[in-house]
């Protein structure tokens, strides 16, 4: 890349978000890191000198507008947006109350929309750029207990496909990178609540035909590739990174 441009990453304190920040920093991007609070980003900003941290609840359109304006006013030209912030409780339909439904849609879908609405016009002014909206294979394959999460992520894919077409003539690519099960610290922590954590991890790994979960760094490398000129003709369609899950459903190798 010639002159460094700014990449905005939402959910940058999370497993995939932090790995993406490290991968994009390696590729020479300047970083604007967004999460619920700047405290959550302290470790990452210490590790990545020059990265700026912004606290923003992405469910709030006014907060997103103010944060995006601050990022645009205070840094170099914007070149990329990666929407990684997300929530996803596993709850059967009977337990999916109004609050869980609304909150999941608010963070995963509306939050992504608000960020796209603020950043795409700026990328247009800059003459192009890339947006990666992190989706999930739950939008493509059924999984019990994921009604709100899957619906929100299906929305993320629809949103990305639409914006990809709407902005294709402006040199802007919009790509819904779509991970399968990924071994983030949060996912690893979840095993500790199971009766047999090792068995829970093994069962989870069997969902993917390659017999293991993706590592956050592998999703981040895909995102960094999508943000690079090497992916110049990739836009719109989901880019699935799931160890074969959405092709085969379960591992036949174990
Ligand atoms: N880990 C997986 O197996 C997996 C699989 C497919 C897709 N994904 C998606 O990848 C993305 C990152 O997942 P992860 O596993 O790294 O999760 P994570 O929980 O480690 O990270 C999510 C981040 O989003 C932030 N966030 C949540 N609500 C927010 C809000 N209202 N405002 C601002 N920030 C908010 C959290 O603080 C957290 O830092 C999510 O969108 C998730 O749905 C994850």
Uncertain stretches: none
Which structural class is indicated by helix and strand composition?
A: alpha/beta
Helix content: 40-55%
- Indicate the CATH class: Alpha Beta
CATH H level, superfamily name: NAD(P)-binding Rossmann-like Domain
Strand share of the residues?
5-15%
Hetero groups in this structure are: nicotinamide-adenine-dinucleotide
Mean pLDDT: 94
Broad shape = globular
Describe the structure concisely for a colleague.
By secondary structure, the protein is an alpha/beta fold.
Structure description:
The protein is of the alpha/beta class and 254 residues long. The protein has one domain: NAD(P)-binding Rossmann-like Domain (Rossmann fold, 3-Layer(aba) Sandwich). It contains nine helices and eight strands. A six-stranded parallel beta sheet has the order 3-2-1-4-5-6, with helices on both faces. The longest helix has 29 residues, at 98-126. The N and C termini lie far apart (43 Å). Bound molecules: nicotinamide-adenine-dinucleotide. Residues 11, 13-17, 35-36, 40, 56-59, 84-88, 107, 134, 136, 179, 181-182, 184, 186-187 line the site of nicotinamide-adenine-dinucleotide (NAD).
């Amino acid at each position: 890349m010639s002159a460094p441009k700014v990449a905005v990453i939402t959910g940058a304190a999370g497993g995939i978000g932090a790995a993406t920040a490290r991968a994009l920093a390696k590729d020479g991007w300047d970083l604007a890191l967004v999460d619920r609070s700047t405290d959550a980003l302290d470790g990452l900003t210490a590790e990545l000198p020059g990265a700026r941290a912004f606290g923003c609840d992405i469910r709030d359109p006014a907060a997103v507008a103010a944060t995006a304006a601050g990022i645009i006013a205070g840094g170099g030209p914007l070149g990329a947006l990666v929407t990684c912030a997300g929530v996803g409780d596993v709850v059967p339909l009977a337990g999916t109350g109004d609050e869980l439904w609304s909150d999941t849609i608010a963070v995963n879908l509306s939050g992504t929309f608000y960020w796209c609405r603020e950043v795409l016009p700026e990328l247009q002014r800059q003459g192009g750029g890339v947006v990666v909206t992190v989706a999930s294979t739950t939008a493509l394959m059924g999984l019990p207990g994921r009604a709100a999460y899957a619906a929100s992520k299906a929305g993320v894919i629809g949103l990305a496909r639409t914006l990809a077409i709407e902005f294709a003539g402006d040199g802007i690519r919009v790509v819904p990178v779509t991970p399968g099960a990924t071994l983030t610290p949060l996912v690893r922590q979840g095993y500790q609540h199971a009766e047999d954590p090792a068995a829970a991890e093994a069962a989870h790994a069997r969902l993917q035909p390659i017999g293991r979960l993706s590592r956050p760094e592998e999703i981040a490398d895909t995102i960094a590739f999508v943000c690079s000129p090497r992916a110049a003709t990739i836009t719109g369609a989901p880019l699935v990174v799931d160890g074969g899950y959405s092709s085969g459903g379960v591992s036949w190798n174990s």
